[in-house]
Amino acid sequence: MKERIDDCDLELLSAWLDGDCDDPAGLRARLNAEPELALRLRQLQAVRARLATLAAPDLSADFAAKVTKRAFARKFTLPGRGFWWCALPVAAAATLLVMASLGHQAPRQERSAPDGDAWRMALNAAANAPDAESFAEWVDEEPAMEGTLPNDLAGTFAELSTREPGGADEIETDGLDANASVIDMINRLTDEDAAVLAAKLRPGA
Amino acid sequence: MQEVDDWILAARARNGDQAAFTALVQRYERPVMHFCARMIGNLSDAEDVAQECFLALYRSLGRIEPRARFSTLLFGIARNLTLNHLRDGRRRGRHMARPMDGLETEPASGDQPDHRAQAAEIGRVLADAIDGLAAEHREVLVLRELNQLDYEAIAQVVGCPIGTVRSRLARAREALRVRLAEQDMLP
Questions:
Q1: Is B124 found in the same domain as B62?
Q2: B183 and B157, same structural domain?
Q3: Is residue B104 part of a domain?
Q4: Mutation test of the interface with chain A: which of B48, B109, B167, choosing the one with the most A Cβ atoms within 10 A?
Q5: Which domain holds residue B40?
Q6: Does the beta-carbon distance from A10 to B126 stay under 8 Å?
Q7: Residue A34's beta-bridge partner residues?
Q8: In chain B, is it the N or the C terminus that has fewer CB atoms within a 10 Å radius of its CB?
Q9: Domain co-membership, B76 together with B123
Q10: Is B3 in the A-facing interface, judged by CB distances under 8 Å?
């Protein structure tokens, strides 16, 4: 018989409450022989009974509808202008690499080449972008998007490039999903659209 | 009629079925809210975090695989968000107001007014005691006692061995027992 109830006893009693006791017969024998242990068990049972009476909080009546609406809303928040000035060149460089690798895989017909100067400039900027790492992390976290038209993308970039510093960062578009992966979008660009994008990246465009 | 499996609803939601997603939210909104409220101790913040939890679930629908129990995954998200919320609150030095009125105990039907008052008092002490627990003790207690998760599920949600769950739970229960005993609220 133990003189004091220790941590092991408490774990034993706690497990008993949950029906998870490894040696129920042994504990039963101790409970019969140790009134203090038996009292402790009764008290823990009382605590448990009190916990069961704690009320679950009320939710707004339209909670589920509200969450569903938010989840399915085609709305997204873009990072600030400063971020995009770093991120766009990185994205452009990624496009260039993808297009170059595609060029080695299959011959293409009737495609106009992107503006070489613009891409060189984008690559340069990407190499010097201070925020390339956080951009890459952001892209990694975003699930891929489906069905976005390249023109939507170019339009969004155009809108960003004309935005005043400190202006609202939130943009709503009709066809552009919040959780788009920029890389995924760029992978779908045709050379013509890529050239449009490159033009947007040119200073003063 | 048999309930549609959570993962089936999740798959439908992933394919754009809004009704399936709503059904999933309705199925888990109260347990998730209960968890968030007890972890955060503030109803309004808890509802915001519960909303974020379901939005995070929606965003991850394309990536998650039906390997574990759905509830384990959902409570894992809720747990991360509540801990982030508590951390952010501490970082900003914000005092966490705890307007939990009306949340203490569920009045039993037919209770006498003095019994009701006593039950409410016990509820207040208990809510306070839960609030005073360390977060790692509070989360296992809430998941076990209020959300009825078993040890294995709690271990998955919290990311620790079952033995750790067992000892944290024992400590949390003992802390509540001491608190109620101090107030002469126990046999």
A1: no
A2: yes
A3: no
A4: B167
A5: 1-97
A6: no
A7: none
A8: N
A9: no
A10: no
Tokens of B151: 């040890």
In terms of phi and psi (left: phi > 0; alpha: psi -120 to 50; beta: otherwise), the region of A108 is beta
Asked if the structure places residue B106 within a domain, the reply is: no
List the single residue in A40, A54, A144 with the smallest CB-CB distance to B123.
A54
d(CA A176, CA A178) in angstroms, rounded, equals 7
Same-domain status, B72 and B143: no
In the stretch 12-41 of chain B, residues with CB closer than 8 A to chain A read 16, 18, 21-22, 25-26, 29-31, 33-34, 37-38
- Same domain, yes or no: B89 and B117: no
Cβ contacts of B181 on chain A, cutoff 8 Å = 43
Chain A interface, best mutation among B24, B59, B121, B125, by max A CB count within 10 A: B59
Judged by average pLDDT, the poorest of A55-64, B24-33, B161-170 is: A55-64
What are the tens digits of pLDDT across the range A112-154?
A: 444 444 444 444 444 344 343 433 444 344 443 333 334 444 4
Structure tokens belonging to residue A125 = 């900027």
DSSP chain A: --SS--HHHHHHHHHHHTT--S-HHHHHHHHHH-HHHHHHHHHHHHHHHHHHTPPPPP--TTHHHHHHHHHH---EEPPPHHHHHHHHHHHHHHHHHHHHHHHHHS---S-PPP-HHHHHHHHHHHHH-TTHHHHHHHHHHSPP--S--HHHHHHHHHHHHTPPTTS--EE--SS--TT--HHHHHHT--HHHHHHHHHHHSTT-
Residues 52-111 of B with CB under 8 A from A: 54-55, 58-60, 62-63, 100, 102-106, 108
- Provide ipTM, 2 decimals: 0.85
CATH number where B9 lies = 1.10.1740.10
- CA of A164 to nearest chain B CA: how many angstroms apart? 30
Residue ranges of domains in chain A: 7-52, 69-201
Based on the structure, what is the number of domains in chain B?
2
Instruction: Look at residue B102 and tell me if it is in a domain.
Output: no
